[in-house]
Amino acid sequence: xxxxxxxxxxxxxxxxxxxxxxxxxxxxxxxxxxxxxxxxxxxxxxxxxxxxxxxxxxxxxxxxxxxxxxxxxxxxxxxxxxxx
Length: 84
Known about the structure:
By secondary structure, this protein is an alpha+beta fold. The chain has a single domain, classed as GIY-YIG endonuclease (3-Layer(aba) Sandwich), CATH 3.40.1440. A three-stranded antiparallel β-sheet has the order 2-1-3, with helices on both faces. The longest helix has 14 residues.
């Protein structure tokens, strides 16, 4: 399985990515080993995740979410929390 995730950085910004192991990826972000963007914005906190069967599907969803405004991303996060 592939996971799409959104993390909230310490400065309040949002970062979207994909991975096959969310726990490891979040740990790597917090150890400053994952991406240049989050390296100076740790710690990060996982606020959203989705599962996808293929890397291709996860990448397509990642591109779509990255095109959203911050406000729309936060609405997506809030809508997922309501369903749980």
